[in-house]
Design brief:
Length: 303
């Protein structure tokens, strides 16, 4: 399955363990930021803490989805439960968009109706730096696994947004400490919202691509067809379909027209093994299905 990432050390741990560690870091920083926001009166810090809370929820969803995805296939779920990762990522994307809207609304309200309360820039700065360091560690932990799992990628993007949010809060805190200009706090909140939207949309687009069973990004069907046609005995390839169950789990099917001699001489198993090896070695497709047809066969439902 996709529960393990290659490598050694902490980053080589299973996806679920990495997500659990990241969840612990996120939860601790969330509590620190909430207390810091209440004590300092910073909207940007409160927005960042709300973002951290959303990330904690997203990580919990990712953990549950990862556990479900590891369940074996059965007669009703012949592909197993790998799509659970995709649904987990979909929920994360929706949460991010809702959060961005709420932050933007409050930021605009603060700018239109400036609050009389002072913002403690010094405390705001310290808490933001703590959040920055924690997010950097979480990103480092997830950086390898996120390349193979759409579910872990969703968590990784959320942590990335938190890190950028911490940077925005730090800049706002420095401005407040050095100049006393309080609107910097609300502006930082709007920046956090603006940073959330593009990554949420990107994640949502990837989820839609998987659910729509589109060809995985970077996969060239014509190139695959050319490789298959280069095999001795293959005369045509049609009715090709390529999709993915989740990130890193492509599926391939095709009808392959072969010379009559291949079937007559009993060389079909050898050719099948060669075609499957071609898909696995050159295109990283572990699950491929081929239907052999004798040369001259008419496929009435070919696309």
């Amino acid at each position: 399955m996709h529960d393990h990432a290659p490598g050694t050390g902490l980053r080589g741990a299973s996806n679920r363990r990495l997500l659990t560690i990241s969840l612990g870091l996120t939860g601790v920083v969330f509590l620190v930021q909430v207390v810091g926001a209440l004590l300092s009166g910073s909207l940007a810090l409160l927005a960042d803490s709300a973002h951290m809370l959303t990330d904690a929820s997203g990580l919990i969803i990712a953990l549950v989805a990862s556990a479900v995805a590891a369940r074996p296939a059965n007669d009703r779920r012949t592909y197993g439960y790998q799509r659970a990762e995709v649904f987990g990522a979909l929920i994360n994307a929706i949460i991010l968009l809702v959060l961005a809207t709420a932050i933007a609304f409050e930021g605009v309200r603060r700018l239109a109706e400036p609050a009389d309360a002072e913002v403690a820039g010094g405390l705001m700065l310290v808490v933001a730096v703590v959040g920055l360091l924690a997010n950097a560690v979480a990103m480092w932990l997830l950086s390898s696994a996120q390349k193979r799992s759409i579910n872990v990628r969703g968590a990784y993007l959320e942590v990335l947004g938190d890190l950028l949010g911490s940077v925005a809060v730090i800049v706002a805190a420095v401005v407040i400490v050095t100049t006393g200009w309080l609107p910097a706090d609300a502006i930082a909140s709007l920046l956090i919202a603006a940073m959330i939207v593009p990554r949420a949309i990107a994640l949502l687009r990837e989820v839609v691509s998987v659910l729509a069973e589109s060809v995985p990004e970077g996969t060239q069907v014509q190139e695959i067809r050319a490789h298959l046609l280069s095999k001795p005995g293959v005369t045509a390839v049609h009715d090709v379909h390529v999709w993915q169950l989740t990130r890193g789990a492509p599926v391939f099917t095709a009808h392959v027209v072969v010379e009559a001699a291949v079937l007559a001489d009993g060389r079909a198993p050898e050719l099948l093994s060669s075609l499957q090896s071609c898909l696995s070695e050159h295109f990283d497709v572990e699950h491929s299905t081929f239907q052999f047809e004798p040369d001259g066969h008419v496929e009435h439902h070919a696309h």
